Structures are given as C-alpha cells and as structure tokens.
Amino acid sequence: MSSTAHGHAASVGNGHDAPAGHHHNPGFIEKYLWSTDHKMIGFQYLFTGMAMALIGGFTVYAFRMQIAFPGMSIPGYGRVTAGDYNALVTTHGTVMIFWVAMPVLIAALGNYLIPLMIGCDDMVFPRLNRLSYQIFLVSALVLISSFFVEGGAFGGAWTSYPPLSSKSQYNLTGVGSTLWVVAVALEFVAFLLGGINFVTTVMNSRAPGMKLWDVPIVVWMIVLASILFMASVGPLVAGAVMLIFDQNFHTGFFDPVKGGDPVLWQHLFWFFGHPEVYVVLLPAMGIVAEVITVFSRKRLFAQRTVIMTAIAVGIISFFVWAHHQFVAGIDPRMANVFSVTTLIISIPVAEMVFVYIGTLYGGSIRLTTPMLWALAFIAEFLLGGVTGIFLGASGADIYFHDTYFVLAHFHYTFFPIAFIAVFAAITHWFPKMFGRTLNETFGKVHFWGTVIPFNCIFIPLFVLGVRGDHRRIYDYRHFPDSMQAGMQDLRVFATLSLVVLLAFQVVFLVNFFYSMFKGPKAPANPWHANTLEWAAPSPPPHGNFPEGLPTVYRGPYEYSHPDRKEDYWPQHIAPEGA
Amino acid sequence: MIEQYVPSASTFSPDIDHIIWLVLVITGFWFLLAEGVFFWLIFRFRARPGVKGEFITGEKPHEKRWVTLPHYLTLIFDLWILVVAIKVWTAVKITTPPAEETVRIIAQQWAWTFVHAGPDNKLDTADDVTIVDELHVQKDRVYHFELTSRDVLHSFSVPVFRLKQDAIPGRVIKGWFKPTLTGQFDVQCTEICGIGHGVMPARIFIESPEDHARWLKGPANVATAVPPSAPAAPATPGGTK
Predict the structure, then answer these.
(1) DSSP state of B97
(2) Contact criterion met (CB below 8 Å) for B35 and A380
(3) Chain A interface, mutation test: which of B35, B39, B89, most A Cβ atoms within 10 Å?
(4) pLDDT below 50 — which residues of chain A?
(5) Cα–Cα dist A166/A159, whole Å
C-alpha cells in the first residue's frame, strides 16, 4: 500500500515547474521521499492516509457483507470467519482513526497549510518533520504486517481492552496483538514530533503584522488539536508499554491474578481517547470555518468566540473520559460526575455550530463543491452531536452502551470529521496544492453519491441500536430477539448503502488523479479568498513565496467589507495610502 | 418509543425509557429547529448577481446574543436532562432494594453460567441450580446479582430489563433487577471477548411463581421449554450439583 502511496506522491510534482531556481535540482529520492519541504511531507501524509482509507473501506465492506449475508462468500474476500470478523472490525476502527483521520486532518493539512497560511517558508524543524512522516510510515507498515503473521491481525477491537488484548490464550493472536500496540505507539511518536513542529512554527514564524487574532481559524484549530494530543497521549503511551510487557513478558499490570487491574487500561485509553475525538474535530471545524467564509463572502460570525469555545472544548475534554465506562465496573457514583462534564462539553460545541450557522446570515452563498461539503458537515455533525446527549446522560446510557446506537452516533461525528470535512478541504485547496482545477460536475456527483448513502447507512443503524442490537456480532442469527421482523432487512439496507457509498469514491479518485495532471490550470487565488496561502503561486514553489514573505495588515475574514469595492480583502494587501 | 420494539420487563426499564424519550423530545426539537434555520439561511442568502454580502462582525452585543441566547438555552436543557438522568442512574445503579433472592452470574469465553440459589434461597448450598446459558427468574421478585468473569471482560446485558453491566475477572460486581413481565428473552454479551463473542447468547426465562417452582422441581425438563426456533448454544439442562 505504502509503496503505491509513494508512487502517487512521486507523480505529483512531475507536471509542474522545477523548484525555485536558487535551489539545486534535487533527485527523485531527495525530492519525494527524503524531502524536508512541508508541502511534500503534507502530500506524503495525504497519500498514505488515502491509501490507508482504502484498507479501512475494504475491511468495512467485508464485515458489513458478513452481517447482511452471514456465511456468504464475500466477493473479493471470501468467507468471513468469526476470527476474521473481529480482525476486520478492529482494523477498520484502528485504521480509520489513527491512520486516516489523524494523518490527513492534522498531519497532511497541518503540514501543508500552516506555513502557507501564516506566511513563512517552511516548518521550523524540517528534519524533525521528515522523521515524523518516516516513523508514521513505519507504523503503518507494522500494522499492515500484522495480517501476515501467525494467528493473523489483532481482533480485540480498536479499544484493545485487556485481558483480551494482553494474553494470547484469550485473543489467539499473540504476534498480531503486539504488532497492533507497537504500531499505535509508533504512530503516536510520529504525531508528537509533528505537533511540536506545528506549535513552534505558529508561535515563531508568523508573517510580520500577523497577531494571534489574525491567524486563520484552521491554523488555530490544528495548533489547539496538537496541544490536546500532546497533553493527552502520554498516559496511553505508558499504557501501551505496559500492555506490551503484559503480552510478552507476562507482567501483570492489567492482570487481577497478579495484582493488576484491567480497568486501568480503560482509564489510560480514554483519557487519551476522548480528547482524541476533539483532536480530530477541531481541525475539521477549522476547515469548515475557512470554506464557509469564502463561499458565503462573510466574515466569520464572532470569530473570537469560536477560538474561545475551542479552547474551552479542549480543556473540558480532559474531564469527560469515563463516560465511556459508565457500566464498566467503575464506582457508580463517578458516572454522575462524568455525566455532568459530558453534558457541559455540549455547550461550547453547540456554540461553535451556532456561530457557523450565524455566519451564513447576510451572506452571498455559492454552492460550490467545497461549500456543499462544508455545509453537509454542519448538517450531519448536528445529528452526531445531539445523539451524544443520549449517551452522556448516564441513565439512558445503561441501555444504549455498546449498541449500534453508539456506533451510529460516533459515525455521525467521525464520518463528517474524517471524510466530509476532508473532502471540503481537498476540494477547497486542490487548486493551490496542484495548480489545477477539479471538475465541478464530478465533484457534485461524488458529493451526493457520498452524503445520501451515508445517511442510508447510519439511520437504520440508529434504529437497530434502539431495538437492542449489540456491537461486534458477526452473525445475529444466534440471537432470536435480534432477528425479529425487519431487523435483518435494515442490516441489508445499511450494507447495500455502504457498497453504493464505496462505489462513488471511484468518482472522487478519478476526478482527483485526472485533474491533478490534466485539469484546467488554476490561478493563484481562484476563490477570491483572503488568507495568505492564496498569495502564493499555485502550486507554491519551494520556499512558498517567491516574491518575498508577505506582511499582514488585517484579519483573515474581511469579506464584503464596506470600505472596499471587491468583496474580499486579502490579508497581505497594504491599505491604500499606506 | 423503545417498548414498541423491546418489551419493558423490569421495574426500572420504564424510567430508562422515559429519560430516553425526554432526551429525544428536547434534542429533537432543537435539532429540527437548527436544521430548519440552517437550510432557510442557505436558501435566503443564496448568491444573487449584484448583491454583495453584509459585513457583520458578530462581536457587537445585539449580534452576539444570537449565539449567547442559544448558549444559555443549551445550558438550561442540559441541566434538565442531567437531573432526570442522574435520578434514573441512582435508582438503577446506586441504591439497591433488599434482595429476595441472589443469583450468581459467571462469564467466560464463551458461555454464561448462572448459579440459582435453589429451594433454600441460599447460594453455596447443595441445592444450588447451576445452568449454562439459561437464567430462570420469577416475576415480581427482587434479585441481586453477583457478576464475575473467569477470563476476559464480558458484559451482562438484558435488553428487556434495560440493564447492562461489565464483568471483570477478579472482581464481583453487584447489581439488581426486578422482573415485571413473564416470557423468555435474549441475554447478550456486550463487550468483545474474543472470537466466540458472536456466539455467546443466553436466554432469560421470567416465570410466574408456579412455573418457577415447577422448573425448580424438574430441571431436566428445561430443554423442552426452549422453542426449537431458538438456535441457542447447546443448553446443558439438569446441571444441578
């Protein structure tokens, strides 16, 4: 997989001009594989993430087909055994969160956008940046290799609860489960290095004149997400090391017989795992802020409020983790405390959504492909948000915990984050990234072909959750109450909708790769946007701003300003008479 | 809402259904309102030739109240939901009515063992009835359960009771329920527990006192009580010690 990722990344620059003249002409390896250019590293993350998304998509195809048509030989996979099923479920969750959402939202977009949007020539630690990607690539290879070892890939779910994950006599995948933990831990190291870079760069390398409030929201969000990530991941890395020890050296950190406690892992995991939700949510929110301001020609409503709410979300996210453990055997009184914090976090998140809806008021809204994706994010994420209230309310969670209701809820948050917002970002910044324009018709076909099936998958799963379907079951025929009239029909409908959704991704891939080489040439600022990346040529050469680094005179969202004839006012344009 | 699909068979299941219904009404109303405003704004402010967008910072008090007012409304409705949710949680998981009978539930890869107290209504006596994958209880009787696991995490879930509790090796977790409906229903394991997680079904039999007494007398007859349509894992009836 990863070698193809390189192949794509390698082809990216071929059609374009050579790097700026004052640099020597680098060879293939130096340019594409050993590059320290933030844009190339961003592309490496992007293409690796896209390749991993194919794995995530294929695994979900295989196990959903098994649920809909149990025992059938799945076209392209074969018969799914119970062990396969668990491995597929585990891989889908792990890959989509750690090797798709994280690398694309934080690493790819953060690397690509941060230096361009704050007006500097590169990250402050370019070699650290290169190392970050290389470790990430190794982590992906380690995860993939677990499919080919004795016993196969780990099948204890992406949450990897011990003792199932810690003892091979329970999970039957001794090597696979260790490779899983090693891969996840390596991936965390990669993002720690990236996070250090993002925070330091934004602190130190902003263009002259760019005050903190002039920094675009998406950059704010990626930096806040990096801080959240760095602050929360430590305990889980410690937990991962303990798990590796329990697995291979028979220590007893999570083994009650040896004085350990399996629930300890859950605390370490979710202390990271819940802030992680906001680590990916915040950049997605940032992307949406950029896109809706550009395409509604509006200043972001209450811009400072958005940043304040994001900071509030970040802080509160450290106090909600045990809502994943209401019925896990923790002191039941703790559930009430975490229920309170969980419902409190709904307030700043809701406020962000209100701000985005408010931004549309008085706008001049253009429904381009990126705008459709950004609006769809708001519409779909709202449903993900309100269904979270059912689960945060401790009394209701007793019933919904570990049912398809939970699954549908977090897919209504994660799918908008990891795919809808990412498609908004890719379609919005594609002209900048590759200097060419995507086809709008194909873009809209892909949009509707993704959003409609998405709802057709997960609304039935909400219903199945209400009807009591529990998660990670490979054949419901063993449960008479789960085979009542209509329930299997809903499973089949959701699965077929998934197949349709996956098929429509071909439209995106064709549009993406065709336009990268053959699309109409894009001007520097095709959307008439304000932020600094649009001041650089499309695509930006090595060093980003060949005419010298820009100076910033105003905030990023001065659209439709009454003092100006045009309806946009780029940050770097000097005021008249200055 | 839920009882249309999944019968409500414990004293606390109506309370849990009620909080779910309450959250549905509250969030449903605001969800539809927000989506309505959202789509209306998209339609109302679609780009028209010659019409420039308005310049609104949203920082002035009379503008910002469009965000702060919903903010306070969210807070108020959150508090309402919290009060009800905590009340329900406390009733189900914190306070416990005195037991009329205690049942021991042992989870393992991949079976449930239910230890019934038997005629003397005491556990750990000779007349305990130990059965795999079948739990027999009486209607209108307060049961305490002692839940444990022999290997990995499992979760004891009875959807008709709206009850769920993880089982942890090395710990005995206590809880309670009081059935209010006769019938037989699924018991699920709702925590992934290895390759047999999908084939770890059990059944709960809620019986009238007479039927329960009949079952206690002749546990060997239990097998006939399982309808042939239920492809449950092979029950081991008559596992009396």
Answers:
(1) P
(2) no
(3) B89
(4) 1-22
(5) 12
